[in-house]
Amino acid sequence: MNTMNVTVRFAETDALGHVNNTSYFIYMEDARLHLLKELGWNTSHKDWSFVLVSTKCDFINQAYFDQILRIDTSIQKVGTKSFQLSHDILCAQTGTVIARGHAVIAFYNKEEKLSEPIPYDLKEKLLTYMNA
């Protein structure tokens, strides 16, 4: 499992005083990048080779400005052209579950505008990480 922390910024809250629902998708995106970097994959926008196929987030408890959130990301499934991640977003101080999300990421050829098989070296890293 990959873990990262984020401190809720004021701009990520809404008129009700809690974290706006759209902010959770940004946290999950940051967590995906964090995982790919940990795997040693190039995350330069120039060489970007992934597309988000599907994402979902269930909001369980509220989070607030200046709260520290811990995002735990794990690899659930690795396919031929895509992989699936799960994200647990928790209050870092109490461990309370704030939200749970999922994402399906496909490997993508920008020039051809088509998904393509995950490169062998990345697939091996994803499988090794998943089974660790």
From TrEMBL:
Pfam families: 4HBT_2
NCBIfam families assigned to the protein according to its UniProt record, in alphabetical order: YbgC/FadM family acyl-CoA thioesterase
Keywords: Hydrolase
Protein name listed in UniProt: Acyl-CoA thioesterase
InterPro entries: 4-hydroxybenzoyl-CoA_TE, HotDog_dom_sf, YbgC/YbaW
Record-annotated membrane-spanning stretches: none
Gene3D superfamilies linked to this entry: Hotdog Thioesterase
Organism for this UniProt entry: Pradoshia eiseniae
GO function terms (MF aspect): fatty acyl-CoA hydrolase activity
Top-level lineage group: Bacteria
Protein family according to the UniProt entry: Belongs to the 4-hydroxybenzoyl-CoA thioesterase family.
